[in-house]
Design brief:
The chain is mainly α and about 100 residues long. The chain contains four helices and no strands. It has one domain: MazG-like (Helix Hairpins, Orthogonal Bundle). Helix 2 runs antiparallel to helix 3. The chain starts with a helix and ends with a helix.
C-alpha cells in the first residue's frame, strides 16, 4: 500500500469522516466534474494549459479527487498501487508492449 494511501486512511479515521463506498463514489463524481469544469474554463477546449495555469487552477481539485479515490480504495480493501500495476500489465499484454 502506498504511503499516501495510508495517510488518507489515517485522516479519515482521525476526522471521523464517512467511508461508505456509495458516498465516496458520489463525491468522486462531483470532484471529477469540478476538474472538468476548471479544465474547460481555463483551456477553452482541448488545448494544453501552461503548467502555471494548470497548477493554479487544477492542483486543488486533482488533490481532492485523488484523496477520495484513495479513500474508496481503503473502504473496499483495495491496494491502489497494485490495482494500477495490474491495469498496466493488462494493457501491455493486449497491445504487445507497444503504443
Amino acid at each position: 500500500m502506498l504511503k499516501i494511501q495510508r495517510k488518507v486512511k489515517a485522516l479519515y479515521k482521525k476526522k471521523g469522516w464517512k467511508t461508505a463506498p456509495p458516498l465516496l463514489i458520489l463525491a468522486i463524481q462531483e470532484e471529477l466534474g469540478e476538474v472538468a469544469k476548471r479544465w474547460l474554463r481555463e483551456s477553452k477546449g482541448y488545448k494544453k494549459l501552461s503548467s502555471a495555469k494548470a497548477d493554479s487552477t487544477l492542483f486543488e481539485e486533482i488533490g481532492d479527487l485523488g484523496n477520495l479515490l484513495l479513500a474508496l480504495c481503503n473502504a473496499l480493501g483495495i491496494d491502489f498501487e497494485k490495482a494500477v500495476e495490474n491495469t498496466i500489465e493488462k494493457v501491455l499484454e493486449k497491445r504487445g508492449g507497444s503504443g
